[in-house]
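Box 3.1 A note on notation
Throughout this textbook, protein chains are presented in two layers. The first layer is the amino acid sequence; the second is a C-alpha cell string describing backbone geometry. Keep the layers aligned when reading.
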Amino acid sequence: MPKMKTNRGAAKRFRKRANGTYKCKQSHLRHILTKKSSKRKRQLRAGDVVEKCDTPAVRKLLPYS
C-alpha cells in the first residue's frame, strides 16, 4: 500500500494543536488595508482556530499531522 500524500498547501496553512484542533492565520490582512481601522488590523494579527465542522476536511489533507 503506498503512502498517503500530505497536501502541501494545507501543510503551510494549518498546524495541529495538542488538543487535536488546528490553528491557522486569519484572513483579510493582505491588501485593501487603508479602509480598515487600526483596531481591526491589530486584531486580525492574532491566530485563529479552524471550526469544528471543518476539522475533518483539514485532517484528510494532513494525514500525518
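The helical segments are 8-13, 38-44, 55-61. The radius of gyration is 15 Å.
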